[in-house]
Amino acid sequence: MVVQPIVAGVVTAVVGFASSFAILLGGFQAVGASPAQAASGLLAACLAVGAGSMWLSLRYRMPIVIAWSTPGAALLASTGAVEGGFATAVGAFLVSAALIVVAGLFRPLGRWIAAIPQPIAAAMLAGVLLQLCLAPVQAVVQVPRLAVPVVLVWLVLMRFARTWAVPAALVVAIVLIAAPVDAGWPQLAFTAPRFTVQGVVSIAVPLFLVTMASQNVPGMAVMAGFGYRVPLASALRVTGVASAAAAPFGGHAVNLAAISAALSAGPDAEPDPARRWIASTTSGVAMICLGLSAAVATSFVVQSPPILIQGVAGLALLGALTSAIRNIEGEAAIITFLVTASGMSFLGVGAAFWGLVAGGVVHVFFSASRTKEKISAS
Q1: 269 phi and psi, to 5 degrees?
Q2: Residue 256, beta-bridge partner list
Q3: Under the phi-then-psi rule, with left for phi > 0, alpha for psi from -120 to 50, and beta for the rest, what region is 357?
Q4: What is the pTM of this model?
Q5: What per-residue confidence (pLDDT) applies to 224?
Q6: CB 3.0-4.6 Å disulfide test: which of 25, 202, 247, 337 passes with 123?
Q7: Which tens digit of pLDDT belongs to each residue from 59-82?
Q8: Cα-based distances in Å from 328 to 7, 122, 355
Q9: Residue 299 three-state SS
Q10: Measuring CA to CA, how many Å separate 40 from each of 33, 61, 283?
């Protein structure tokens, strides 16, 4: 039946949107976006995700789901404002998109990114996510009347219906806040990009790396687990172009979906693997429709206690943090995690970049030492 994959596609879009749009808006606001610019960025990201999912699914007849970079949004939230404000962030979004396209055109670059030791990549991601994942605890202390019911609903549904845990927690937060929201139509707001060294090093390069290492590479693995060999080079070119098109309107980055891909690529979406592309195509259409709620979503976030929104975002990212921490192993990864989680800024460059540098240096140092020991022993 055609109905089954269509329903699966709608669920994929709703879960992907509801579970992480607060993270996205929080990231935009952290790097200086106004409410109108944040709403525009959310709409642009939805359009890029929808167009990318439909194009790749129809082109290759595979359930290829595109998503915005949730770890990338968390990176923005942890980086904070840069000199030049949101215009500098938009310039960095364009540079990151260009790097993704280059990775699709120059295949060795994609292989080099994939060759970053998994423990170091996981440690950088864990360091980025840590502060957001502490927010639920802080919210319970600061606004217990609002936060405790949200956390309890999340906890119960994590036990009985994990897929809906974060969306249900968000609904509870909306009901408890009961703030009037702007129900108007969202508008794409153009922001002239500003290119600076600080923006490139603090935002563009870490955004590119975290999107590749934490989204595209796992996304390929998830699809392979369901028997699909995604054309990575083509997917990178499409998502890079889509990211570049969304960037001037505030969208940061889109990529292969990892977790939500399983909702459209698995047997629950459609028993026949050859027909599951219907689910991912539907998810693209549904995501574009959900983008029309960007103004409402942004209005809600703006009027909510910031710590509560951060708390909901933290609940949504706990699974990603758990997975990342499990993969941390060795001195280099620990140092990467500590430097990134410190939130330090040096020479105007954020902690994520320095964490990767520190971990890479330690990794090379210990690798060279072990090589010398082996040579001496032989």
Answers
A1: -75, -35
A2: 66
A3: alpha
A4: 0.73
A5: 72
A6: 337
A7: 999 999 999 998 889 889 888 888
A8: 37, 6, 13
A9: helix
A10: 10, 31, 20
